[in-house]
């Protein structure tokens, strides 16, 4: 059974349409990330799933149970949803244990304690059960919030920018930890972020949103390797666009020469497209007789961003070797699965 089915959902605020015709399905035990820039409607969709916002039309099903359809709206407290916010939302005057027990206080006392102990073990915080939130780091507080939500045994967990208050040094470690916790607990989750790095690290499935619509849904690598639109390609990494004319199923001609595809691209011969090339797919070789000139270098540690001027265009390249500005270089494109878009109409 699917953990969540969103079908043709429309939402509006004060008569103004915010979400239009959104559809996405989340399987059991899967983590879905809603990814998009500020104001695209991520939080609005999360609120609609939680039941905090009525739908204009469409249907939402959680764990096989319809929670929204025409003329029906199940209240938030009956949806068996756990919510995690970026500010943790812990009660400052309560210990970790009391915070966790808070959501399950209708259970018999003994069961409350057993369940709280289990979830605190799961998030590795048993030894901190008597501490207060201010005596914990941001990452530990977020793990308490996760424990509190899990104690309630939700059918679905919703996480709204859960890592944005966490120091970037420890963020990726916490993301990996929380992903493991959710997987161990067997809980399906939807999480919202505007960061592609967080989305790649946390999600099984990504839905990229733009101006209230879902533009593409798929696994992180599917979307990265095969973006359906320029918007998705740019949002997931950015790169260089250049004209390309198809030679055959595996080759195109570009201003950087012939580029080889590792898989058949199924585009028509002799037709012109725009090829999208990521910075790490271009290799550079120092060559005094080369066609490109390095215009800028950004040192990134393990690699460098190197900007190269060739003809009228500046190319962004990411390479392991060191180059200096004004150096003359040759550019070549490594064989890869090509990304070709129809030419944009002027
Ligand atoms: N209560 C509200 N009343 C009217 N408009 C709203 C309300 N809440 C949000 N909006 C509008 O709805 C749109 C989507 O907002 P939403 O909060 O869903 O975006 P978001 O993708 O989560 O952005 P962010 O990453 O900045 O949190 C925005 O244009 C916003 O201004």
UniProtKB/TrEMBL annotation:
Superkingdom to which the source organism belongs: Bacteria
Per the UniProt record, one Pfam family is ABC_tran
InterPro entries xrefs: AAA+_ATPase, ABC_SmlMolc_Importer, ABC_transporter-like_ATP-bd, ABC_transporter-like_CS, ABC_transpr_FbpC, Mo/tungstate-bd_C_term_dom, NA-bd_OB-fold, P-loop_NTPase
Recorded coiled-coil stretches: none
Outline the extent of the ABC transporter domain.
Answer: 4-236
Q: Which UniProt keywords apply?
A: ATP-binding, Cell membrane, Ion transport, Iron, Iron transport, Membrane, Nucleotide-binding, Transport
Q: Does the keyword Amino-acid biosynthesis apply?
A: no
Tell me what this protein is called.
Answer: ABC transporter ATP-binding protein
Q: Which organism is it from?
A: Motilimonas cestriensis
For whether the record's keyword set contains Ion transport, the answer is yes
A GO MF label = ATP binding
Record-linked PROSITE patterns? ABC_TRANSPORTER_1 (PS00211), ABC_TRANSPORTER_2 (PS50893)
């Amino acid at each position: 059974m699917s953990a969540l089915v969103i079908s043709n959902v429309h939402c509006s605020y004060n008569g103004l349409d915010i979400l239009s015709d959104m559809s996405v399905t989340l399987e059991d035990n899967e983590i879905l990330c809603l990814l998009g820039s500020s104001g695209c409607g991520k939080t609005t969709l999360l609120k609609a799933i939680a039941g905090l916002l009525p739908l204009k039309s469409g249907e939402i099903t959680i764990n096989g149970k319809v929670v929204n359809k025409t003329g029906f709206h199940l209240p938030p407290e009956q949806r068996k949803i756990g919510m995690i916010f970026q500010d943790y939302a812990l009660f400052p005057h309560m210990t970790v244990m009391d915070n966790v027990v808070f959501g399950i206080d209708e259970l018999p006392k003994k069961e409350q304690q057993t369940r709280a102990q289990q979830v605190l073990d799961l998030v590795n915080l048993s030894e901190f059960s008597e501490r207060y939130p201010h005596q914990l780091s941001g990452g530990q507080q977020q793990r308490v919030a996760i424990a509190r939500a899990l104690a309630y045994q939700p059918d679905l967990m919703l996480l709204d920018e859960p890592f944005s208050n966490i120091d970037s040094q420890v963020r990726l470690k916490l993301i990996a930890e929380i992903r493991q916790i959710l997987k161990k607990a067997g809980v399906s989750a939807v999480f919202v972020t505007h960061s592609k790095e967080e989305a790649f690290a946390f999600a099984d499935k990504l839905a990229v949103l733009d101006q209230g619509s879902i533009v593409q849904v798929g696994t992180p690598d599917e979307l990265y390797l095969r973006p359906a639109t320029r918007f998705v390609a740019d949002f997931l990494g950015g790169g260089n666009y250049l004209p390309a004319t198809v030679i055959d199923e595996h080759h195109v001609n570009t201003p950087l020469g012939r580029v080889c595809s590792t898989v058949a691209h199924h585009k028509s011969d002799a037709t012109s497209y725009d090829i999208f090339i990521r910075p790490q797919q271009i290799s550079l070789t120092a060559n005094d007789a080369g066609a490109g000139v390095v215009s800028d270098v950004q040192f990134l540690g393990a690699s460098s961003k190197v900007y190269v001027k060739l003809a009228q265009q500046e190319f962004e390249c990411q390479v392991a070797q060191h180059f200096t500005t004004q150096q003359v270089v040759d550019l070549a494109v490594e064989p890869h699965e090509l990304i070709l878009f129809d030419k944009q109409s002027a």
